[in-house]
Design brief:
five-stranded mixed β-sheet
């Protein structure tokens, strides 16, 4: 339902966080991290529940809250945050006054929560998002360990596990790791504004499957000597077979922003 069409209907029942709240209230808040991954703007929420106010749709800006007043104790509502390009929901928290935790079920991947408003209290539901970058990464290079061991890597990686291909190969001292599956990934700007990708995956090491990897790569511009590479490869029995972090000695890592 269009936000503007609903504005008249919900104005009498909603207040901004700075206003007083009342018993049997539902408060929906939009939070973000306070670092370089901070999300901004407004987010749209679909709300389902009993009574004439629902279902409805509202927009809440980062750092703000919207309150539905006097819904009644025991009222059950379901709030779903609509997906926003360039952001990712990281947490849903539900609290009430005096440290009470209302009854609720939350599903962060589905961006939804169902909460029961406590008797004589206010249920505050807070959605926390971080900013992400969309695109793909290509390139590779070489780094050296403190003992002088040369490690080379090459990759084509995407900022979503759903986008393919996702390839990563690492070679050192006659050993080879090859990524089979990208299990998690995030692209963002670090505190200096440098494009960064972090992720995890599974793969095979010297032909043996069941190994895992956690990695981080940055693109600090041309010619690539300020690009960072970091990876830790772990065997099926949790033995770390490689752990190294350094700036590239040779090579170049490039982030290609989605258009």
């Amino acid at each position: 339902m269009n936000v503007l069409r609903q504005s008249v209907l919900i104005t009498l029942a909603m207040t901004i966080a700075s206003s007083a709240t009342y018993a049997h209230d539902l408060q929906i808040c939009k939070a973000t991290t306070q670092d370089s991954s901070a999300a901004s703007g407004s987010f749209v929420f679909d709300i389902a529940g009993p009574g004439p106010l629902f279902p409805t749709q509202i927009s809440v800006a980062v750092g703000q809250c919207t309150t539905f007043a006097n819904l009644g104790g025991g009222t059950v509502t379901t709030i779903t945050e609509e997906a926003a390009p360039g952001t990712r929901l990281t947490a849903i928290s539900v609290t009430a006054l005096n440290g009470l935790i209302p009854t609720y079920t939350a599903n962060v991947p589905q961006r939804t929560v169902t909460v029961t408003i406590p008797e004589g209290n206010t249920a505050t539901v807070t959605f926390t998002n971080i900013a992400t970058l969309l695109g793909r990464w290509t390139g590779g290079g070489s780094i050296f360990t403190g003992s002088g061991v040369r490690i080379t890597h090459g990759f084509e990686l995407h900022c979503s596990t759903a986008d393919t291909p996702n390839n990563l190969e690492i070679n050192f001292q006659g050993n080879q790791f090859h990524l089979d599956s990208l299990t998690s990934v995030r692209c963002f700007l670090d505190s200096s504004g440098i494009p960064t990708i972090t992720g995890t995956g599974t793969g095979h090491f010297d032909g043996i499957t069941g190994y895992t990897i956690a990695f981080k790569f940055t693109d600090a511009g041309e010619p690539g000597v300020n690009d960072l590479a970091s990876y830790e490869i772990t065997s099926p029995d949790n033995t770390v077979v490689l752990s190294s972090t350094a700036l590239l000695t040779f090579g170049n890592q490039q982030f290609h922003k989605a258009h």
